[in-house]
């Protein structure tokens, strides 16, 4: 059988009723046939493609091919016999690992695991024909995988239990990996004829689940996000990116260091700049350590020869692109951009890693506003996959194309967004954080709110995330925006500022020098500064009690449902406003930002998909309810776009674009 490449089933077809003849009997018939069937695999054999290869009597694989059963990542399981044949072929532990993670493996690993018979650097099809000719005379019974006895470890139950615990810890609330474990158990404990029925029953529970719909949506959303479009007609497939061979990073703080590593490991020469010798030396040692550890993990040599460290901006005159990653201070950034304008050659792209400041204001102080763009990395920049590419009104299509393509080269998921305070991710974070702190005032604790969000599936609750990011960052932003100032009475800080409800608790926490993990104290306490093990802190409990009694607030019991609704519906509501304002082009872009940058669970699809899954009518009704209860919180007032979508019958996410006015587009 010539298979070449197969990415498995067309995932789009899962949205409707499945058509065509049932696959399992067809595959069983191929395996039961008397003529030897040899699979020749080039490119990929994934999902159904891999299951097809498993019914063949032999498998020949090109050395560059990749194989895998990624169904679990789509919220389903390999239901064309994959969960029954793979354990029989390679044993329970290895099969469990591959099926529950869905990871792709190389041809070499497949050979080592005993999945394939030969790896070739030549044409796999030609070799497969030779193989088949030799196999004609040989008996096939031992080559029919479904007939094999599953090699079973003596401690099967303990193994399955351990993997179940691991899966539950890693992917809280996710159904598919648990169903995969049950299917593999069937392969170990039942004959194939019964195991395949169990596989099918388990698939039936997953196939139409909300989690499967969300995960399949994520697959396409991630691919849609790279396809940016500007109102001018310039877009991803008609704008040529520049080739970037050399780059410079200004500032070797946490962000700058991560960006240097991200660039150097994909072969780009990097000049790293600091303002003081001591900072430069510290940054240098940390970058070298990070690159060495990264190279060791990947089994390659560290590209230290690509690095240069300097105190002088004059050294940047020939680089292709600069990314500024200095302190989040507009005046300082403007000085840097003015300086860069003078020293860099006229064609150098100037990028800023600001997490929310006005990219166009920075462009305005340069001699090349069309070559200025935001590249908002997420911390730690060498680990986090998200990159917001912030398109200023004057950024050229070539500049945007270059930033997007550079992001892809660094292995990032790049999303083009418009220029407004906080862009997409951090702009949406404000209402989400506000709701969490209002809930504290009303009676909740940080650990209760975090638990509700983590049970929902977030990698980290809002307070643990804030402790990790550093509480001083938001404090400084609030000071700069005039929310905190000399006119605020520190003994009696007002709970209403700039015409709306304000919660001063985060400021009180900062006033005590509690900036999160880095100071060993924040919303939680840690063993030491830099510690990561968060424990509830009685001092925070006291602070909350004193605060409530000072303001005469009677604490009430708050349900997890209220926590989820207020935090997540406020988040999505701001997402609707962002779409109205043209700051994000599509709901998919917003969802991808929250999936890759803010730990939103993939099986929830992202805030916008989640809202559509809950039902826009319900989201609207709950927001109206909460806004009525808290009229001084404008973020709870349902956005006009949400109302419009409900009035139009709540179309699916993919159709929202038709209801968004494009005349406001900032993209
Ligand atoms: C013989 C088949 C019978 C099967 C019946 C039994 C049922 C079995 C269940 C399954 O098979 S579920 C599907 C399992 N397969 C996967 O999950 C593979 C998903 N795809 C990938 O991992 C990657 O796309 C890739 C194949 C490794 C290629 O990666 P690459 O980076 O090169 O390209 P992409 O940008 O990701 O994809 C290009 C293009 O193709 C679309 N696409 C890829 N795979 C599928 C798919 N299985 N179904 C539908 N569409 C797919 C992807 O969306 C891109 O489209 P775009 O329009 O260009 O954005």
From TrEMBL:
Self-association state and partner proteins as the record states: Monomer.
Recorded family membership: In the N-terminal section; belongs to the enoyl-CoA hydratase/isomerase family.
Gene: ehhadh
GO molecular function, one term: (3S)-3-hydroxyacyl-CoA dehydrogenase (NAD+) activity
The protein's name in its UniProt record: Peroxisomal bifunctional enzyme
InterPro entries per UniProt: 3-OHacyl-CoA_DH_CS, 3-OHacyl-CoA_DH_NAD-bd, 3HC_DH_C, 6-PGluconate_DH-like_C_sf, ClpP/crotonase-like_dom_sf, Enoyl-CoA_hyd/isom_CS, Enoyl-CoA_hydra/iso, NAD(P)-bd_dom_sf
Record GO biological process: fatty acid beta-oxidation
Keywords from the UniProt entry: Fatty acid metabolism, Isomerase, Lipid metabolism, Lyase, Multifunctional enzyme, NAD, Oxidoreductase, Peroxisome
Any Pfam family the entry gives: 3HCDH_N
Pathway(s) served: Lipid metabolism; fatty acid beta-oxidation
Species of provenance: Sinocyclocheilus grahami
A Gene Ontology cellular-component term: peroxisome
Entry-linked SUPFAM superfamilies: 6-phosphogluconate dehydrogenase C-terminal domain-like (SSF48179), ClpP/crotonase (SSF52096), NAD(P)-binding Rossmann-fold domains (SSF51735)
Reaction(s) this enzyme catalyzes, per UniProt: (3S)-hydroxyhexanoyl-CoA = (2E)-hexenoyl-CoA + H2O; (3E)-decenoyl-CoA = (2E)-decenoyl-CoA; (3Z)-hexenoyl-CoA = (2E)-hexenoyl-CoA; a (3Z)-enoyl-CoA = a 4-saturated (2E)-enoyl-CoA
Signal peptide coordinates: none
Domain 3-hydroxyacyl-CoA dehydrogenase C-terminal: 422-526, 563-650
Taxonomic lineage of the native organism: Eukaryota, Metazoa, Chordata, Craniata, Vertebrata
Compartments it resides in: Peroxisome
